[in-house]
Amino acid sequence: MNLLLLEEADFIAADRVVLRDRRLVHMQDVHRAAVGDSLRVGRIGGLMGNAQLLRLEASEAELQVSFDQPPPAKLPLTLLLALPRPKMLRRVLQTVAAMGVPKVVLVNSYRVEKSFWQTPFLEPEAIREQLILGLEQARDTVLPEIVIEKRFKPFVEDRLPAMTEGTLGLIGHPGDYPACPRGLDEPVTLAIGPEGGWIPYEVDLLAKAGMQPVQLGARILRVETAVTALLARLF
Amino acid sequence: MNLLLLEEADFIAADRVVLRDRRLVHMQDVHRAAVGDSLRVGRIGGLMGNAQLLRLEASEAELQVSFDQPPPAKLPLTLLLALPRPKMLRRVLQTVAAMGVPKVVLVNSYRVEKSFWQTPFLEPEAIREQLILGLEQARDTVLPEIVIEKRFKPFVEDRLPAMTEGTLGLIGHPGDYPACPRGLDEPVTLAIGPEGGWIPYEVDLLAKAGMQPVQLGARILRVETAVTALLARLF
Questions:
Q1: Per residue in B53-67, pLDDT tens?
Q2: Within 13 Å, how many C-alpha atoms sit on residue A88's CB side?
Q3: Which CATH superfamily is domain A77-234 in?
Q4: Å between A145 CA and nearest CA of chain B
Q5: Interatomic CA distance for residues B100 and B138, integer angstroms
Q6: In terms of CATH, what superfamily is B4-69?
Q7: Residue in chain A lying closest to B217 (CA)
Q8: ipTM of this complex prediction, to 2 decimal places
Q9: Which parts of the sequence belong to the Ribosomal RNA small subunit methyltransferase E methyltransferase domain (chains A, B) (predicted)?
């Protein structure tokens, strides 16, 4: 945790917060904070700044806070991601939040196991928990938007074309395709497939929605690694 | 597992192997392989090719194998990595093997907790196990070399200068430094610090050994994410 993220409910006055949950435990056990210490804080969806620890007890901490710094810029990106297996989903959500992806569409694909859609990690609160961990890691305050699209074809045919409009649409896909471009400034819509990849029918449908396949080399990467590698290369 | 990696001990003839361990279980449970099926195989440290499943029983499988394809090229890189916490170490070892890093030096740093050096995950067999998982994921056969350097100063002063010679030496380090370069062809020695980063004394010593700090932006990434992001950007 490199940033203590504050929720609206934490505030007892405009410049005072009281913490009682895992953030208190983290201050006690990891930061080993003491009264008078200064900590970096951020207001969810808002500015970042500093806090001074006024009171630290076993069950709660009180901090005086001030905010003066905007969070880092997001990437100009919409990430279209075939739903990963539940354990990977949690890590990927942390990673995309940490790397500054503003919008993720979790979409079905032929190679996504049906059971993956039943995971409790897709509940809004569970998703938010992982995103918060990513923001705390990277020092950002703005939650990415996560959209869930359980049906591939209607999403790609009816809603994706409007998303890709005015952006460079790319499909991360192993094969004999152009290399993934580097260091872009323009907005991108990037589609990353499931383990085993998109099937040809899906690549065709994505292409009709304005996206083109690009590759990262012969090595087959886990989803989380592929997401990080593609983002680091694109921007 | 995108490649079935074969050890010398698996061979019962020049073109025959018998498998009994987790690879057998994987063929049965994940691949749901049947006699006659063809699978991608690789010989550890050698060529890749194809296998045909000749016999599949509960306790063992026999395959006929042939090899005709070299593994993918490695990156022109030596990675100098402050020892991560044990759980992260395992994932990082998989990641570096998957991404094609040929040599990793695990080194001490002021911010590496002493207890990390006691982990059983540093045993040679435990390291090898994670590297194999990374090679199986990425379809490669050549194990990276892992060097363990428990003392930072003698390593950096006495052995690092010879390693960095003829390479571009870079320190991944947050701060007011030049941006990490992109798309290099030349050999690189890259140092990635622990959670919390290298301390200034360590950066100075690394700089004296011929390395220069570069940054990836304001976001603070987990070690595994930082490794992937830096490699994807550099090469």
A1: 999 999 999 999 999
A2: 17
A3: SPOUT methyltransferase, trefoil knot domain (3.40.1280.10)
A4: 19
A5: 8
A6: Hypothetical PUA domain-like; domain 1 (2.40.240.20)
A7: A72
A8: 0.95
A9: 73-234
